[in-house]
Amino acid sequence: MTDSIVIRVLDMKKENIKQKRQHRNCLKCRIIPCINFYRKGKVNVNELDGGEIYFLKETIKEKLITPCLLGCLIYPMCKLLIPLYEDEGKFSSSLLYHQCTRDLRASAFLLLTGHYRSSMQILRPVLENWLTGVYFDTRYHHSRNESEKEIVVKRYNDFLDGNFKITDKEWVEIFGSTKRKRELLDQKFLLEFMLKENLISREENEKLKNKVKELNKYLHPHFEFTDVGRPSCPSCPSSVKFDEKEYKECAELFQYITEPVAFQRIGSIF
Known about the structure:
- By secondary structure, this protein is mainly alpha-helical.
- It has eleven helices and two strands.
């Protein structure tokens, strides 16, 4: 009786170990290739492709990509924003900036794993969330009295609840016209606001508008900017392929959106 119990326990342990090993290899799935992120493709440096994790390891090993070029921009931004996020007694749009940092990490990861188009699609929301944070912080810190500050805080909370709308007065202040084109905050209104508040120069305003146009190509139906519209796209959807030209173009756009040059005057708000 005792021997049979011991045998059963040992069998259960073996089955447990077997199941754990199987789970450990889930990302190397041999049954469903689409979730085999370690799938090996071509090892030729000029045609390197495969599953995302395999691709990431190989491109780093071959020195085709350098993750620190992206990370060195995100890290200081994260460290600078920590005091704003932790200071509950001081108003700031830190939740929006915090989301920007998270989205930038996601964009960087997609870029490093060969999903160039998907990586760029995240950057326009990053820019718009950041500009929205600057909009509320500027309104608050440029308020003339406590009553105006209370209004800004209320409007910020309305924004968080999804109830914010641009007022007629604000629209006229920014565009000098009573003809309304939009009620919600977007990059067009926010860039004009920053220009009006002297947070960016006219030249910087135009540069950012042009960068938004570039990002829009990855969002809207432009076939040449889709994965399948590129000669370098692998025939199998479960593979990614290294494209040096596309990687560099996307990395430069990522750096432009992320680097302090784009937001160099924000510090003057606080």
